[in-house]
Design goal:
Helices cover 40% and strands 22% of the residues. It is an alpha/beta fold. InterPro entries: LysR-type_TF_proteobact-type, LysR_HTH_N, LysR_subst-bd, WH-like_DNA-bd_sf, WH_DNA-bd_sf.
Length: 293
């Protein structure tokens, strides 16, 4: 029997999902069905691709080699399909977009319905990582990154920039008072980032310069978590305009120390590995998102 694309897809999905049960959910099959399909593939190849125990699965040496070839074959098939669809002006295929959860929630999700209506053949996969993710490891086509870029192996497209605001809820300010100068922040509860030191350098003019390094009273890895803490009256926070604009307009959060703001704006880029002959589904998403931003 010959190997077909379904065999390859099943095998890759099992590896990427980590378990047969998780793979069955992605494939819309039963766990036993996925297990049988995997066994049939191994019979076709007359070799074992995985060593399976009750606790874990590991690729054999043959399985590792086959996985690399299988990924390349499916990728080539997707590109061939996309080439034909491009001729018909129908961008298609899987498009995995990764962004920090605040950007995903406030800048991508609200526009998904419109994007899908425009490009119904594109299969969107959205993932959120509040730390910088490896594009290849996470099978990501586009990653949205906020702030300075350090990885020279990536190609980047500038999407927009966003000012930062120092904010607090009216309830917090009523209880603890409003800081009148950056030095007053030392007497307040401050909300900051863990494992992201740049996020704790607030763009405020003060006696020692134009950047104030704060020591958080509460730290979190996600800006969205910090936003929720600020809304709950737990302290003062410094966050991007794109995720707090609606809160400011509704009065849920209030700007403080505006006179001391340096005017710094966070740069927002889309990064990807492809540059020449950029896949049309990637290109159309970037153009669409840039218009929205």
């Amino acid at each position: 029997m010959e190997i077909n694309s379904d065999d390859l897809k099943t095998f890759i999905t099992v590896i990427d999902s980590g378990t047969l049960s998780a793979a069955s959910v992605h494939l819309g099959q039963t766990t036993s069905g996925v297990s049988r399909a995997l066994s049939r593939l191994e019979d076709k190849l007359a070799t074992s691709l995985l060593t399976r125990t009750t606790r874990r699965m590991e690729l054999t040496e043959e399985g590792q080699l086959f996985l690399e070839k299988a990924r390349a074959i499916l990728s080539a098939m997707e590109e061939a399909e996309e080439t034909i669809r491009i001729r018909r002006q129908q961008p298609a295929g899987r498009l995995c977009v990764d962004a920090a959860s605040p950007f995903m929630l406030h800048c991508v999700v609200p526009h998904v319905a419109e994007f899908r209506a425009m490009y119904p053949e594109i299969r969107l996969e959205l993932s959120s990582n509040d730390q910088i993710a490896d594009l290849i490891e996470h099978r990501t086509d586009i990653a949205i990154r906020i702030g300075a870029l350090n990885d020279s192996t990536l190609h980047a497209r500038a999407l927009t920039s966003s000012p930062l605001h120092v904010l607090a809820s009216p309830a917090y300010l009523a209880q603890h008072g409003t800081p009148r100068a950056p030095e007053d922040l030392a007497h307040h509860s401050l909300l900051g980032f863990v494992q992201y030191e740049l996020g704790n350098q607030w763009p405020l003019r003060h006696a020692a310069g134009n950047s104030l390094t704060i020591t958080p009273s509460i730290s979190a890895s996600s800006g969205e978590t910090l936003r929720q803490l600020a809304l709950a009256g737990q302290g003062i926070v410094c966050l991007a305009d794109f995720m707090t604009r609606a809160d400011i307009e509704a009065g849920r959060l209030v700007k403080v120390l505006e006179a001391d703001y340096t005017g710094y704006r966070q740069q927002i880029h889309a990064v990807y590995y492809r540059n020449t002959q950029l896949a049309q589904r990637i290109s159309c998403f970037l153009e669409f998102l840039q218009q929205k931003l």
